[in-house]
Structure to design on (96 residues):
């Protein structure tokens, strides 16, 4: 595991993004009837974004990348490019 200030910063940023994703989703569905599967999907996606941040803070980039690759493309777009590139670089570096 690699613990760096940058990983901690990006991890905290991902945790904030997960909360923003929940708020954005709530506004999108405001005034409509929520289906159970929609609610489950939104919370699962937000949880996964939060997990990416948690794993990054812990320095477990393989776990974070595993969660990121499982995300739907639209949700993966919520991850800032700088965070995703950092994650990719550190995952590859650990393998070599």
């Amino acid at each position: 595991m690699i613990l760096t200030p940058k990983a901690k910063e990006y991890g905290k940023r991902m945790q904030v993004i997960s909360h923003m994703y929940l708020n954005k989703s709530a506004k999108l569905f405001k005034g409509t009837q929520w289906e159970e599967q929609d609610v489950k999907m939104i919370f699962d996606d937000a949880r996964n974004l939060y997990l990416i941040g948690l794993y990054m803070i812990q320095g477990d980039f393989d776990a974070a990348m595993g969660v990121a690759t499982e995300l739907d493309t639209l949700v993966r777009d919520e991850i800032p490019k700088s965070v995703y590139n950092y994650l990719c670089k550190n995952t590859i570096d650990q393998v070599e």
